[in-house]
């Protein structure tokens, strides 16, 4: 137990309930998901960098999205895997908890900003194809990506600071597999209603704010696609947006359930399930979403594999 904030030198993570055998099964499953996530997203980054056919804004943004998926899942999953191997409670230092909370919130906010940028990119490509190269030039793309990263990290400084300014006196046990903000606020003896309300407003600003350009862009995109006379033309136009749209639905859907709610201290079981979708499932699906539905990426991957096979034979 902790009497006040100054004595909070570490937190205990309860992780997942169940027997040690169940924990070993979860460890194997999550390790597989994590390994595929690292390998798949790294392959996407490498192929985009080396293949000239993918030297366009769409794939430039995709490589940054893949990098974000690697970083986000790496902030959470290794600690979660280590906890599944331990026989009892896993501890994390106060500094480690602060760093973890700040990193996954900042990286997540950066990802939302980048998804909004990718939606605008698709809007320009579909609705203004003749001006696409002049609008989405290399300078503009680099500037948009840089702003997304800076915005993501600056925006989460105050929320993390506010989370650790409350007095923790109930316990130092977090019923989660990582330093979840809602579970941290549950340990406070202070009245956190105002803090939770401000965090709720900031979550609305970040998630809904980045979702707005996505919704507007896809409204115009769908309207433009429906005006294309040929069915093959409509399919081709929609195929350039399908992967991004699928990822948007997965990413925003899970985060809306987890963060956009007035009361941050939601039930732990609910948070754990949604958190697994955000930190394990979505990063795992990202390479498949953007390769299986994208002919250019599949062609680039196939050519890269053939080149590697030739090099090994030689």
What does this entry look like structurally?
Helix 3 (94-127) runs antiparallel to helix 5. This protein has helices spanning 20-50, 57-85, 94-127, 132-135, 138-155, 157-163, 181-186, 193-226, 231-259, 268-292, 295-313, and strands spanning 10-13, 90-93, 173-174. 75% of the residues lie in helices and 3% in strands. A three-stranded mixed sheet has the order 2-1-3. The protein has eleven helices and three strands. 36% of the residues are buried. Mean pLDDT is 83; it is low at 1-7. The longest helix has 34 residues, at 94-127. The chain starts with 9 loop residues before the first strand and ends with a helix.
Quick overview of this protein structure:
The chain is mainly alpha-helical and 314 residues long. It is 75% helix and 3% strand. It starts with 9 loop residues before the first strand and ends with a helix.
Summary keywords:
314 residues, mainly alpha, 3-stranded mixed β-sheet, 11 helices, disordered N terminus
């Amino acid at each position: 137990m902790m009497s006040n904030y100054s004595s909070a030198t570490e937190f205990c993570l309860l992780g997942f309930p169940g027997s040690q055998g169940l924990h070993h099964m979860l460890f194997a499953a999550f390790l597989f998901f994590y390994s595929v996530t690292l390998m798949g997203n790294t392959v996407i980054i490498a192929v985009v960098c080396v293949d000239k056919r993918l030297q366009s804004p769409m794939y430039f943004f995709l490589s940054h999205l893949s990098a974000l998926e690697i970083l986000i899942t790496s902030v959470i999953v290794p600690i979660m895997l280590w906890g599944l191997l331990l026989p009892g409670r896993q501890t994390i230092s106060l500094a480690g908890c602060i760093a973890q909370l700040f990193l996954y919130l900042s990286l997540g906010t950066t990802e939302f900003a980048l998804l909004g940028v990718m939606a605008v990119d698709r809007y320009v490509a579909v609705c203004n194809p003749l001006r696409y190269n002049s609008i989405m030039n290399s300078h503009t793309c680099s500037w948009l990506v840089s702003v997304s990263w800076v915005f993501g990290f600056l925006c989460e400084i105050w929320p993390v600071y506010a989370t650790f300014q409350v007095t923790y006196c109930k316990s130092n046990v977090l019923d989660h597999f990582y330093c979840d903000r809602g579970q941290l606020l549950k340990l406070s003896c202070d009245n956190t209603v105002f803090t939770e309300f401000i965090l709720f407003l900031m979550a609305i600003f970040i998630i809904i704010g980045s979702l707005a350009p996505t919704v507007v862009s896809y409204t115009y995109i769908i309207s433009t696609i429906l005006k294309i006379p040929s069915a093959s033309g409509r399919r081709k136009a929609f195929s350039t947006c399908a992967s991004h749209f699928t990822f948007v639905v997965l990413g925003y859907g899970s985060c809306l359930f987890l963060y956009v709610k007035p009361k941050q201290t939601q039930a732990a079981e609910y948070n754990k399930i949604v958190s697994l979708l955000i930190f394990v499932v979505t990063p795992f699906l990202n390479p498949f979403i953007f390769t299986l539905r994208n002919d250019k990426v599949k062609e680039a991957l196939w050519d890269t594999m053939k080149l590697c096979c030739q090099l090994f034979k030689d």
